[in-house]
Amino acid sequence: MSKKHVKITVNGTAHEALAEPRTLLIHFLREALELKGPHIGCDTGHCGACTVDLDGRSVKSCMVFVAQADGHEVTTIEGVGAPGALHALQEAFREHHGLQCGYCTPGMITRAWRLLQENPAPTEAEIRMGISGNLCRCTGYQNIVKSIQAAAATLSAAGQEAAE
Ligand code: FES
Ligand code: FES
Fold this sequence. Notes:
Elements: E1 4-10, E2 13-19, H1 25-32, E3 51-54, E4 57-60, E5 73-75, H2 77-80, H3 88-95, H4 105-118, H5 124-130, H6 142-163
Parallel strand pairs: 1-5
Antiparallel strand pairs: 1-2, 3-4, 3-5
Helix pairs in contact: 3-6
The structure holds FE2/S2 (inorganic) cluster (2 copies).
């Protein structure tokens, strides 16, 4: 199959590459760009481990062809926060034990990151609904929900401080 020239902005940096159009976005991110944060859990759109942000929407990157992301903006967990500059969600997951094995965590946090931009003060039910496409085999979700609630409170307090 002939390769297609794609240009995708990932975490604020423009990347150009030749890729087979049928390449999945998750494989492009992990293999061509070496962004190992998004994980592959099922490859069938069920688990959410591969969740990234595409033009302001959470998507499962195992369900997106790289050709569909051509000309678009992608954010992965590496763009949400970094060692030494963790996002409030990452801090909250650490503090409130929102992870055990950590396999679901990059996708879970990337999803929660978009959720809190859409709804900065979600109820517990809204959080549970918002992350319903992301499966965790370890935590029972209790501490994940607590972590997202804590991050929402931190971000809200920081926003109020900035406005004062
Ligand atoms: S790897 Fe994409 S949803 Fe499971
Ligand atoms: S922390 Fe292990 S799958 Fe979620």
